[in-house]
């Protein structure tokens, strides 16, 4: 069985060289909302998670959203 690497939102964002502010802009959310995604205070909507996955070029199954 092959194990897949899992990425936190922060690690995935860092991998593509974006700041929290830049990612928030790309996702169309405020900086505080995006920061809450990364620290687990707010869960991303599915459509936002899809957009995030495309931006960081990592399948949703390999992202840790909580």
Notable traits:
66 residues; mainly alpha; two-stranded parallel ribbon; 4 helices; 52% helix
Major sheet attributes = 2 strands, parallel
Strand content: 5-15%
Helix/strand/pairing category: mainly alpha
Instruction: Classify the helix fraction into a percent range.
Output: 40-55%
What is the N-to-C order of secondary-structure elements (H for helix, E for strand)?
A: EHHHHE
N- to C-terminal distance: 25 Å
Mean pLDDT: 95
Rg to the nearest angstrom? 11 Å
Tell me briefly what this model is:
This protein has 66 residues and is mainly α.
Your description of this structure?
- The longest helix is centred in the last third of the chain and has 11 residues, at 46-56.
- The chain has a two-stranded parallel sheet with strand order 1-2.
- By secondary structure, the protein is mainly alpha-helical.
- The chain has four helices and two strands; from the N terminus they run E-H-H-H-H-E.
- It has helices at residues 9-15, 20-27, 31-38, 46-56; strands spanning 7-8, 63-64.
Give the helices and strands, then pairings.
Elements: E1 7-8, H1 9-15, H2 20-27, H3 31-38, H4 46-56, E2 63-64
Parallel strand pairs: 1-2
Helix pairs in contact: 2-3
């Amino acid at each position: 069985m092959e194990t897949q690497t899992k990425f936190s939102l922060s690690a995935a964002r860092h991998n593509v060289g974006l700041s929290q502010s830049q990612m928030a802009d790309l996702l169309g959310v405020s900086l505080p909302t995006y920061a809450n995604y990364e620290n687990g205070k707010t869960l991303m909507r599915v459509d936002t998670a899809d957009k995030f996955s495309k931006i960081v070029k990592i399948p949703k199954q390999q992202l840790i959203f909580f």
